[in-house]
Amino acid sequence: MSFDDRPVNQRAELDRAFRALREGFHYAERRVKNERLRRICREMIEMSYEAYVAGDAKLGTHIFQECEGLIWPSRQLRIKHAVEAERRAFGDVRHFANVKISPYPYEGGEGDLGPIQKELLEYARTVCESRLSEVEGFMLVWVMKVDRTIVDVRLRSQKKAREFIREGASSGQFIGAASAQLLPGGGLLVYDLEEPGKPFISARYLRRGDLFEAPRFHLEDPVTFPNGGVD
Q1: Domain enclosing residue 96, as ranges
Q2: What distance in Å separates the CA atoms of residue 46 and residue 21, rounded to the nearest whole number?
Q3: Alpha helices in the chain (DSSP H)
Q4: For the whole model, what pTM was predicted?
Q5: For a 10 Å CB count at each end of the chain, is N or C smaller?
Q6: Which is nearest to 230 in space by CA: 176, 151, 191?
Q7: Do 97 and 113 belong to one domain?
Q8: How many domains does the chain have?
Q9: Where does the pLDDT of residue 171 fall: very low under 50, low under 70, confident under 90, or very high at 90 and above?
């Protein structure tokens, strides 16, 4: 199950693509054992189609990708549009009744970054420049202290690093956090950026040949700094 997320300009081509998708969907939905969830997935395909018809290719793509994640857990995104799909399909919400929908869109832009996130991103990019040829990838973590200095977090596991950052944030020692991860193979570079009073932002750079494309900024609910802001 795959789909080209480039905007479709011709209605006939759009209709053809979704007709083929609907006709072949029964092969994919065999992976979904829950009958109600199957119906939700089908409704999400219709929602994706409607978004494309309305000219909103980004929304159509995100709905479709969320649907894919319900079928293939390795591709799972946070639950958002599936709640509305269930309501449309059944008139109520049971399967996703306990889901709290994030107020943030899947994607934003550079303008969504706070000043601390911008500073951390610039610092992280400078540090990572010399390491982009590492085939096995890498993972780096930093925090920003109250005096605006940025320091490395060198702990054995991501779990311990996260605990360390949470403790420092809670005690007021840290006012920002960031990580950089080059996935094995070097095809995707991800910067995760955190700042009080701002959404968790993941800036993702996809490599095409020798160059990285312009980043996509994914917005999530705050993680380390869920409350308050910086004076």
Answers
A1: 11-101
A2: 10
A3: 11-29, 35-53, 57-71, 81-90, 115-128, 158-170
A4: 0.67
A5: C
A6: 176
A7: no
A8: 2
A9: very high
